[in-house]
Design brief:
- The protein is α/β, with parallel strands linked by helices.
- It folds into 2 domains: 175 residues, 3-Layer(aba) Sandwich (D-Maltodextrin-Binding Protein, domain 2); 146 residues, D-Maltodextrin-Binding Protein, domain 2.
- The chain is built from 13 helices and 11 strands.
- Strands 1, 2, 3, 4, 5, 6, 7, 8, 9, 10 and 11 form an 11-stranded mixed sheet that branches.
- Helix 6 packs across helix 13.
Length: 344
């Protein structure tokens, strides 16, 4: 498998050995593996993936695809913003560079950059995880919830609302939030209305003096290590990933729980279009989404249970709001977030 990542140190063999993967083709039924499409994809010979998923998960994921299809994968990993800029430049330059993209910012991409395609496996997704225009599909759900370090925060100190959280002045300066959480802020406003929602956000900022961090996984690790006592908001799957690693961290759901998706889309100029369609179908399959739960990522398929099975029970009792902003909306709410949390 070809691979371009940040460090260049993580090898495919190391990932497979660490996870104990034995993904030999033919070991299990694979409904996503359409024989006609597979034959056409094998003639193309390779697949280029742009993804913001970390190498440990992404390399192992596409090892399954390689083993089942014989198609070699080049995995290019970077942050959503870097990938988006790169794809925009390549599109304007007429380059046919990548086949599929897997990240959380796909819904903000210009539609002409994404092919209209409905993978057969998409039938198992809820409507909220399917683009009505058939250009992207949710592979895993990203839920926005707070978390706390169980050694630093007592059970009776865990707030029951964001208004209660704003009163936790004993943790002033010991609470953090990622500096890009515009979706969370937008969900707060949708739920409470603009006046009250922004007032709650301003109270959180003024009373708690939260530290602004860079990177949601880094925030999860920092809460798990005790650097911070609590996060105002973070991605539940990352907190769960750190918890599964043994850290004393616990996420908890407050109204509203903002939701968006880590999605997959096919490049409208894919150099290997059949391999791209096959890979998109693979990423929506039961096999892949069950594999993804090993890392705490909540599945979008209705027939795949999360890991642990009760990990979403608290979230499902709350008001879940799907926030999928356009590029213009994202700029507006990012600016509002900055005004509240960065310019106090």
């Amino acid at each position: 498998m070809g691979f371009l990542g940040h460090s260049g140190r993580l090898t495919l063999a190391a990932v497979v050995l660490a996870l104990g993967l034995t993904p030999a083709a033919g070991e299990q039924a694979r409904p996503w593996l359409d024989p006609t499409l597979l034959a056409a994809a094998q003639k193309e010979g390779s697949l280029v993936v742009y993804s913001s998923t970390n190498e440990r998960e992404g390399l192992a994921m596409f090892k399954l695809f390689e083993a089942a299809t014989g198609i070699k994968v080049q995995y290019v990993r970077a942050a959503d913003s870097i990938l988006t800029s790169r794809m925009m430049i390549e599109f304007r330059g007429g380059k046919n560079s990548y086949d599929i993209v897997h990240m959380t910012a796909i819904n903000r991409m210009p539609p002409q950059m994404l092919a209209q395609y409905e993978p057969p496996e998409a039938k198992s997704l809820p409507a909220s995880a399917r683009d009505p225009d058939r250009r992207w599909y949710g592979v895993y759900a990203v839920y926005n919830t707070p978390a706390y370090n169980t050694k630093l925060v007592k059970p009776d100190e865990v707030p029951q609302s964001y208004e209660d959280m704003a009163k936790l002045k004993q943790f002033r300066g010991k609470i953090a939030i990622d500096g890009t959480d515009s979706e969370w802020l937008r969900g707060l406003v949708i739920h409470y209305g603009e006046q009250k929602g922004l007032a709650i956000a301003r109270a959180l900022a003024a009373n708690l003096d939260p530290v602004l961090t860079v990177g949601h996984l880094a925030l999860s690790r920092s809460v798990g290590s005790g650097e911070y006592a609590m996060s105002i908001n973070n991605y539940t799957n990352l907190d769960l990933n750190v918890k599964l690693g043994g850290a004393p961290i616990e996420s908890f759901a407050l109204d509203p729980v903002t939701q968006f998706f880590g999605s997959v889309a096919v490049n409208s100029r894919a150099p290997h279009p059949n391999a791209a369609r096959l890979a998109a179908n693979f990423m929506l399959s039961q096999e892949l989404q069950q594999f993804y739960t090993r890392f705490g990522r909540p599945p979008t398929r209705t027939d795949v249970k999360p890991n642990p099975p009760d990990s979403l029970d608290g979230i499902r009792k709350r008001k879940i709001i799907t926030v999928l902003m356009s590029g213009g909306e994202e700029k507006r709410w990012s600016s509002t977030f900055d005004q509240i949390f960065k310019r106090r």
